[in-house]
Each structure stands twice: as C-alpha cells, then as structure tokens.
C-alpha cells in the first residue's frame, strides 16, 4: 500500500474511528512465513481477526476466537437467510456444541432407503439404540443461535457484504477488508482472516486458493396436511436412482411443521429441476395435498480446496470444501473446522498477545484437521464412487443396507463422528456380502436391459 494512505497504521486506530475510504484492491501473493521461536508481541492491543461468513463455521470460529481473548469481527451479509440444507446433525454435535434441545424440530429414529426399483430398507428401526436419534433442525434457527452466542462471547457482529480484500506483502502489514453497510463503503484492518463464506468464497478467490468441483442442491419446503405430516413424524427417507440424481440421492426430511423434499447432482446441474420433478413423482402419494412454502438452491463443494491456508488466512466449512461425499454432510464439519481454526489461532497467538504466521495456521489447524478427518472423507469418497455410478450399484447399496451390522457400523460412524471399529469376522462377511450384491445386481440389471430390447 502507498505510504500516503490514511490507513498506514490502521491497527493502532480504534474500530469506531476507522474512516470510510475507497482503496484500489492489491492482490499480492503473500510470502511464505517461517516458524520462529517467538512471534512479535502486540503491545497495547490484542490480535485482530475477521471471520467472513456467519454460518455454523464462521460463528463457531468467532466464538472460539472471542472466548480466547482475540479481538473478533464476524461479517454476515444476510443474517435473516440461511443456506438450503437437509438439516440433519449427528447426535454428538448436540453435546459437543451445546445445542439447546428446543432448537431441534424432530428426532428421527427411523429411516427408509428406497432403491431405483422401489426396494425399501428400514434403516435404524432395529439398529438404533434406545437413546439414539438423528436430530433435525432448520438452518436459519441454528445459524441465528450460533451467531448470537458468538456475539455474547465478545465477537462484534457486522451485518455487511465484504466486497474485496487487500492482501499485504509483508508479515507485519494488515489485511484490509472492504465492505458495504447500507450502501456505505467501509474498511477494516485486521491481522488475520478466517474465510467461512461458503462454496463461492470471495476469501478463497482473494488468496487464490484454487477451484473445486461443486454440486448443486435443490429443495422445496412443503407444508403437508396433518395426516401426511404424521407419517413423517420421526421418519426420514432417502431415494436413489437415475430418475432423482445421476450421482447422489434425493431426500424427504421432516422439519418442524413441514418437510424438505430435495435432490442434488454434480455432473448434471443443468437438469436439477428435472431430478426434482423425479423425486416429487416418487413421493407423490405421500405429499399429496401439500403446499410449497419455499424453494431453495445452493452450491455444495465436492472436495477440499487445493489450498486452505495462505498467509494469515484460513478457510473453513464449505469455503474449504468440508462436505462429505456419499452422505453430503456439512453442518458438523463446518462447525468443527471453524472451532478448530479459532482455537488454533488462540493457541498460536498466546491468547491474542502475539502475531501469527502461515506456518502456525498450517501446524495448529490444518495438520490437526487432516489428521482427524482425512480418512473419513476418503472413505466416503470411495463409497460414492462404488455405489452411486449406476442403478445396478444403487440397488446393491440398498440391499447391503439391509444388514443390521452395516446399519450399526454406519450409525456409530455418523452419530459419533469417528470411523467405527467393527468385528473382524463380521467385516469379512460384510465385504463378501457387498461384492455378492454388486455382482447380483449387475447381472439382474443386464437381464432387465435385455428384456427391454
């Protein structure tokens, strides 16, 4: 930045006195910073960190930062809206993130998985333990709660659209955030940034974090007649088949007084409305008489970004690409990554007393995240490639899910967020059964095609 800029020493200026200026964005690749025994101390002030995005990832990061003594700014462009989402969270998240029970709309204890040929498997009615369920909630409710809690912890919540970032060329210069509040252009200087601004992350683009493949999720919220809603009281349904998605699944998830009916795809995004019509056709008798009260669509990342930390900027949640294949789960991993990143900055900065570096973020956040979750992401990626490629494979998937052992292992992994340790003999039986189902369904599928001809 030019020496004549009025923001030459912005970090020494109180937030309330920062002037509104228009600056030309400066996108300079930051130098790689090396780890030193002692980082520069910040005399007379605390480390300043901006979190861009106020969903589960950003709010959890802001709460961890503010609770740890960091001067924290949480930007959210649309506090009254929320990302389209099925709304399922793992059971462990309720305690781990202290989610109040009154926020939960439904406790799902039964699931049905329906194959392309309408083979239906009850998933959970026998394999869930008495105290277990899948909590279902609305994202607008969860997001608002987490943002409010971050504010209570000391984060300053700024309802503003971030337009661009100025990237510093040295380890001591600040990042300048340009944003607008009520059409008023403003700037804020900070020491570090956490990008939690979703799949189309502006922060990721600013640090040249690389591209990733995105799916599109589309869902309609449908208010059902009371007798129809009773059917979905504690039941969620998942449908697979080329008619509802060529590479994912479609769903009917219960909410407080309505259901969410939706689907997603990566390879045929232009046909998403066709697949939405497909799932509504499959469930037409169950939702007959229902009224659509909201239509939602949103991009969903399919794999982690090539770069998740650069300079003193870290990406979390969807911005980092933390959505699992096969299940499409993202809420827990968003909140967890945000919290881990916030805690990493608190640790590296000695509670906000010292400057941090790129290597601190890589060591305290990125390496710890990968060590904890990379195997889960790789395993679910493998499952999606095996089972979601054809209707024959999807038939095999549903058939395999009929095994109580498979269901128990699935729930142990999903509800408690760690790969379950199984019985070796049962594992061998599961592998052999899976191979048998794949071979059998492939043969049946070939025979069916021959009959069509």
Automatic annotation (TrEMBL):
Q: Name one GO biological process term.
A: chlorophyll biosynthetic process
Domain of life the protein comes from: Eukaryota
Residue ranges occupied by any Digeranylgeranylglycerophospholipid reductase catalytic domain in the UniProt entry? 229-294
Concerning Pfam families, the annotation shows:
FAD_binding_3 (PF01494), GGR_cat (PF22578)
- List its EC numbers: 1.3.1.83
**Catalytic reactions of this protein:** phytyl diphosphate + 3 NADP(+) = geranylgeranyl diphosphate + 3 NADPH + 3 H(+)
Q: Does the keyword Oxidoreductase apply?
A: yes
Tell me which GO cellular component terms the UniProt record holds.
chloroplast thylakoid membrane
**Which GO molecular function, any one, fits this protein according to its record?**
geranylgeranyl reductase activity
Keyword NADP appears in the UniProt entry: yes
Q: Where is the FAD-binding domain?
A: 47-82
Its UniProt pathway annotation is: Porphyrin-containing compound metabolism; chlorophyll biosynthesis; Cofactor biosynthesis; tocopherol biosynthesis
Alphabetically ordered keywords of this record: Chlorophyll biosynthesis, NADP, Oxidoreductase, Photosynthesis
Q: Which NCBIfam families match?
A: BchP-ChlP, ChlP, GG-red-SF
PANTHER family the UniProt entry points to: GERANYLGERANYL DIPHOSPHATE REDUCTASE (PTHR42685:SF13)
Q: What's the family?
A: Belongs to the geranylgeranyl reductase family. ChlP subfamily.
Q: What does this protein do?
A: Catalyzes the reduction of geranylgeranyl diphosphate to phytyl diphosphate, providing phytol for both tocopherol and chlorophyll synthesis.
This protein's name: Geranylgeranyl diphosphate reductase, chloroplastic
């Amino acid at each position: 930045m030019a020496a004549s800029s009025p923001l030459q020493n912005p970090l020494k200026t109180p937030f309330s006195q920062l002037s509104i200026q228009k600056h030309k964005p400066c996108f300079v690749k930051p130098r790689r910073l090396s780890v030193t025994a002692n980082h520069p101390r910040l005399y007379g002030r605390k480390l300043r960190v901006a979190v861009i995005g106020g969903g589960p990832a950003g709010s959890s990061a802001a709460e961890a930062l503010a609770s740890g003594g960091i001067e924290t700014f949480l930007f959210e462009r649309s506090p009254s809206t929320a990302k389209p989402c099925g709304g399922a969270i793992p059971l462990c998240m309720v305690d781990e993130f202290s989610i109040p029970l009154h926020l939960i709309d439904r406790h799902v204890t039964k699931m049905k998985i329906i194959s392309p040929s309408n083979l239906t498997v009850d998933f959970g009615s026998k394999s869930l333990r008495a105290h277990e369920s899948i909590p279902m909630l609305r994202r607008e409710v969860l997001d608002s709660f987490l943002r409010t809690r971050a504010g209570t912890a000391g984060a300053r919540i700024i309802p503003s659209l971030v337009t661009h970032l100025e990237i510093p060329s040295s380890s001591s210069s600040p990042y300048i955030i340009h944003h607008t509040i009520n059409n008023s252009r403003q700037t804020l200087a900070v020491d570090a940034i956490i990008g939690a601004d979703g799949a189309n992350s502006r922060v990721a683009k600013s640090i040249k974090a690389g591209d990733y493949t995105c799916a599109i999720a589309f869902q309609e919220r449908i208010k059902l007649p009371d007798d129809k809603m009773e059917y979905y009281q504690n039941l969620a349904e998942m449908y697979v088949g080329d008619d509802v998605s060529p590479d994912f699944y479609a769903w009917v998830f219960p909410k407080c007084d309505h259901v969410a009916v939706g689907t997603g795809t990566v390879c045929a995004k232009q046909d998403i409305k066709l697949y939405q019509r497909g799932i509504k056709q499959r469930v037409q008798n169950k939702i007959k008489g229902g009224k659509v009260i909201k239509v939602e669509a949103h991009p969903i990342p399919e794999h982690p970004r090539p770069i998740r930390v650069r300079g003193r900027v870290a990406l979390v949640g969807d911005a980092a690409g933390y959505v699992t294949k096969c299940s499409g789960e993202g809420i827990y991993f968003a909140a967890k990554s945000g919290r881990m990143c916030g805690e990493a900055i608190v640790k590296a900065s000695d509670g906000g007393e010292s400057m941090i570096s790129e290597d601190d973020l890589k060591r305290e956040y990125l390496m710890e995240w990968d060590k904890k979750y990379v195997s889960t992401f790789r395993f679910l990626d493998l499952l999606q490639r095996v089972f979601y490629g054809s209707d024959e494979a999807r038939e095999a998937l549903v058939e395999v899910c009929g095994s109580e052992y498979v269901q128990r292992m699935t729930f142990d992994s999903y509800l408690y967020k760690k790969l379950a340790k199984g019985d070796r003999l049962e594992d061998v039986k599961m592998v052999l059964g899976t191979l048998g189902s794949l071979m059998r369904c492939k043969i049946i599928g070939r025979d069916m095609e021959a009959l069509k001809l």
